[in-house]
Design a protein that fits this description.
The chain has 5 helices and 9 strands; from the N terminus they run E-E-E-E-H-E-H-H-E-E-E-E-H-H. By secondary structure, the chain is an alpha+beta fold. Strand 8 and strand 9 form a beta hairpin. The structure holds flavin mononucleotide.
């Protein structure tokens, strides 16, 4: 038997979502590739979050979160919210995220395929992650979907962000970017 580190190496795929939460009027969001249904009655789902993520501590305090289901067109959003921390920046401002507040006062991100609001009913630290079990309180689902859900396997393909990650290592690229942006104005 060969060794694998992640289950997707065995061909098990998963949806990529944004987990949003709020504390003391401030909003937080991170990308997650671990959402699964736990129970139908009551309706429970889980997401697994590493304690190093800022969102982890915020959810532990706020006891609420929302699962925002992304479409294949929202890959950049997944990359952005999954590569910057709420410790350093306000991702809602930085990435121009439009939202409305749900019943539990969590931000429900506009333009997603679905928004599911949850109250934390249990948390289980295991290995390097904590499993948060949430009871679904309310959900908005967009009908007539033009694009299907974003999957972990979609994240492996090369996108413009990854191209920029390579380009930014070239000395002088920031000066070129500045000139280019000034000319465009
Ligand atoms: C596709 C993708 C899936 C991710 N899935 C998870 C996950 O399931 N659990 C987790 O703790 N971090 C996951 N991350 C990493 C966090 O989104 C990332 O560390 C983020 O910057 C944390 O932000 P925060 O510090 O504001 O909470 C994922 C990142 C990406 C790009």
């Amino acid at each position: 038997m060969g060794n694998i580190k992640h289950i997707y190496e065995a061909g098990i795929d998963n949806m990529v979502v944004l987990i949003s939460t709020s504390l003391d009027g401030k909003n937080y969001v991170m990308t997650s590739g671990t959402v699964a249904e736990v129970s139908h009655t009551p309706p429970l789902l889980l997401t697994s979050i590493c304690p190093e993520r800022y969102t982890h501590d915020i959810i532990r305090k706020s006891r609420v979160f929302a699962v925002n289901v992304l479409s294949k067109k929202q890959k950049m959003l997944a990359v952005n919210c999954g590569s910057k921390s709420g410790r350093d920046i306000d991702k809602f401002k930085e990435f121009h995220l439009k939202y409305r507040l749900g019943e539990c006062k969590v931000p429900l991100i506009n333009g997603c395929l679905a928004n599911i609001e949850c109250r934390v009913v249990a948390e289980y630290p295991h290995g390097d992650h904590t499993i948060f079990v949430g009871e679904m309180v309310d959900a908005t689902v967009i009908g007539n979907r033009k694009y299907s859900s974003l999957l972990l396997s979609d994240m492996n393909t090369v996108g413009p962000r990854f191209l920029w990650e390579i380009l930014r290592k070239i000395p002088g690229i920031f000066i070129l970017k500045k000139i280019f942006i000034t000319q465009k104005k």
